[in-house]
Here is the input.
Amino acid sequence: MVLKIHGAPTSPNTKRVTMLCKEFALDYELVELSFWTEDQKKPEFVEKYSPLAQVPVLDDDGFVLYESRAIAFYLAAKARSPLLPSEDDVKRRARYEQAVQTEVCHVDHLAYSLAWEKIWKAYTGLTTDEERVKEYARTLEETFDAYDKILSKQKYLAGDELTLADLFHLPHGNLFPQCGYTWLEDGKRPNLYRWWKELNARPSWQAVKDHA
Here is the structure.
């Protein structure tokens, strides 16, 4: 069966899922939804697919799953991918979980908030809160300083092997230049730059970066 991914083609979270479908060579159909018409909030969609009225949503032959990272874990397990470390190696799995939680708590939330202020507010006629922008940017810069130190000792965030934790950064990380920030590309943090350049070059990301 072909996987169905319900999501908006420009949504970073939708791209996180379709990127991994490409990574694992899993056939999928993108069922396109529009944020402008609030398709994700329509009663039938909320009832059947997403009680939180958010995308993406996976439908695997009737098995429905929402939240992009939960979908990612499922797809990686389905594909038996080494990008999801085995629970048999407790220490390696713990390092991986640490990296995932760091991305969620210290990067993605702030990256989304920054993009909301610098990009998406303009589309809705709202005014950017520059004080919030400064705080988000300051905190992200501190995080990327820490990342550079981590990556000076190992190739990837969870060790010397690539995991989902690394790839999870791609969708929102690629919005930073649109927000006016080049932390990942400017080379001032050489280890971070090396890591980011490698991630960005992956064919799976290149295939979906403009349209999920």
